[in-house]
Design a protein that fits this description.
The complex is a heterotetramer, with two copies of chain A (about 60 residues) and two copies of chain C (about 220 residues). Chain A has about 60 residues and is mainly beta. Chain A has one domain (about 5-55). In chain A, about 5% of the residues lie in helices and about 35% in strands. Chain A contains one helix and four strands. Chain A has a four-stranded antiparallel beta sheet, with no helix packed on it. In chain A, a hairpin with a 2-residue loop joins strand 3 (about 45) and strand 4. The radius of gyration of chain A is 12 Å and the shape is globular. Chain A starts with 17 loop residues before the first strand and ends in a 5-residue tail after the last helix. Chain C has about 220 residues and is of the alpha/beta class. Chain C is about 35% helix and about 20% strand. Chain C has seven helices and seven strands, in the order H-H-E-H-E-H-E-E-H-E-H-E-H-E. Chain C has helices at about 5-10, 15-35, 50-60, 70-80, 120-130, 165-175, 205-215, and strands spanning about 40-45, 65-70, 85-90, 105-110, 130-140, 175-185, 215-225. Chain C has a seven-stranded mixed beta sheet with strand order 3-2-1-4-5-7-6, sandwiched between helices. In chain C, strand 2, helix 4 (about 70-80) and strand 3 (about 85-90) form a beta-alpha-beta unit. The longest helix of chain C has 19 residues, at about 15-35. Chain C is globular, with a radius of gyration of 17 Å. The N and C termini of chain C lie far apart (about 35 Å). Classes of the chains: A mainly beta (about 60), C alpha/beta (about 220). At the C-D interface, strand 5 and strand 6 of C face strand 5 and strand 6 of D. The complex binds S-adenosyl-L-homocysteine (2 copies). One S-adenosyl-L-homocysteine (SAH) binds near residues 20, 69, 93 and 115 of chain D. Chains A, B: This is Trm112p-like protein.
Chain lengths: ~60, ~60, ~220, ~220
Amino acid sequence: MKESLMEIVRCPMDKQELELEVIQRTDDEVLEGRLVCSECGEEYPIEEGIPNLLPPDMREDAPA
Amino acid sequence: MKESLMEIVRCPMDKQELELEVIQRTDDEVLEGRLVCSECGEEYPIEEGIPNLLPPDMREDAPA
Amino acid sequence: MTVREEFDAWATEGRDRGMEDRHWHTAKHALARMPVEAGDRVLDLGTGSGYAGRAINDTTGALVCGLDGSPEMARNARSYTDSDSIEFLVGDFDHLPFADDTFDHAFSMEAFYYAADPHEALAELRRTLRPGGTFYCAVNYYEENVHSHDWQDSISVEMTRWDMDEYRDAFRAAGFHVAAQDTIPDRETEIPAESEFPTDEFATREAMVERYRTFGTLLTVGVVP
Amino acid sequence: MTVREEFDAWATEGRDRGMEDRHWHTAKHALARMPVEAGDRVLDLGTGSGYAGRAINDTTGALVCGLDGSPEMARNARSYTDSDSIEFLVGDFDHLPFADDTFDHAFSMEAFYYAADPHEALAELRRTLRPGGTFYCAVNYYEENVHSHDWQDSISVEMTRWDMDEYRDAFRAAGFHVAAQDTIPDRETEIPAESEFPTDEFATREAMVERYRTFGTLLTVGVVP
Ligand SMILES: Nc1ncnc2c1ncn2[C@@H]1O[C@H](CSCC[C@H](N)C(=O)O)[C@@H](O)[C@H]1O
Ligand SMILES: Nc1ncnc2c1ncn2[C@@H]1O[C@H](CSCC[C@H](N)C(=O)O)[C@@H](O)[C@H]1O
């Protein structure tokens, strides 16, 4: 994801702004990192450049 | 035209309500008559069941 | 010549039914998209033979007003239907003889661009449609359709030739949201074999294919906020 | 099974590209009607392989967000494009991870009815679209398409099967105006000769013709007032 996406992405639960924590990036993309809700503190992972903004209970790996 | 059309037709010039003067009618239709603007007094003919609501200067028979 | 003179002459020569046959190829697709409900009131702007209003009335049960600037067109249109929920009126696009918020939807095929002032016609449609009402504006005469550019030569009423952007801009300037815009191909007009070209109208078969199968009819759909 | 489990499995088996091929036949006609302008921001809801977002980005220059509930779908979609104006996100229809008034337009093909609560999904679309923004909702699974009724048997995610009226009503209840609704025929899926029937899917050739050429894809277009 580009950093410019921060303007429009919000916490799926309370729609508040998110803070970006970068783990790995290229010149124009964040590849690994976290989006943290400025209100509820929930953390959403960014993996292989794709932010996962599913509500936390839909994100967990369910038992097979 | 049906009398129920009176609910929606208006003077094309000032959009005010019209009054219906019936010359000839059937059970459910006005065939010949006049629509007279309640505001500006302009008269619009009804001929063969069709009201002519052109602005007066577009209605006149133009010279050939 | 005025709209009345030009189109009274067309109506008297029976050209209203010829237009109906040709325009139906694409108009029916535009009509099929309209979200008309039973009991709605729908305006057919520049109704000609009245076929679009008849189709709407038949398929949905909506009340239809067919408006035309030519008394002869309106007389013909009236003679083609017995429905008691269709009315025909003579009137002008720029001076709609209706109260505010009268219509749920409006349709127009190959007529809008004859308005003396198309911006005023849009303002009048905006005024007479209720919030959420749509205006389905279908035209074959538009800038991208290069094969229509010489039509003005054979029609004495002045025509407005907007491109697709200009249609969207004018709708927005009049207070409509633009919900859709595309060109609907005419797949039905028969295109003669290569050996028949040039014809009176088309220099090449490719030109005729482009006119009908590619450009077809431009539809712009406006919605009142 | 959850959306994530079901569609991660589809993505891993490569079914995303198969859907793209089949859905393109009608999706392209819906896409062609959208009044997208350069610089607009457009949402592709349930993006799958991402083809609709790629098409919108290619043809209009709009910025696209492809959202999908399946991480594997989003990963595949991302691998199919190099455009730097398309982003893919994993998220749920009923919990859109976007600010109010973010999008100019939204598109969805064969995905909307998987929402756990489609009314909530519409409310979320209404919230994230700006005034005048459109939602183009295309589905093959709907009540009038009787040939779709048994699809639920082979999909573990619960599906909502509304009819055309229910789509219009639900859009209106969520605060959209309904600007258009129609069924777009699929003229491209090949229909085998009479002698090939019954097939696994269709008892008769007529049934298959009806499924594709008559019912095709239901498109409902909502506009934010
Ligand atoms: N300014 C104006 N006001 C009212 N009607 C007009 C007009 N300019 C043109 N018209 C009418 O618009 C029609 C255009 S011809 C198209 C007729 C019909 N919709 C069809 O598809 O076949 C004519 O009947 C003409 O009389
Ligand atoms: N509740 C939900 N939230 C987000 N995505 C969902 C969803 N339910 C289903 N989906 C996604 O919607 C897609 C439906 S398949 C259709 C994909 C694509 N639009 C096409 O036309 O081919 C799948 O990729 C699935 O993962």
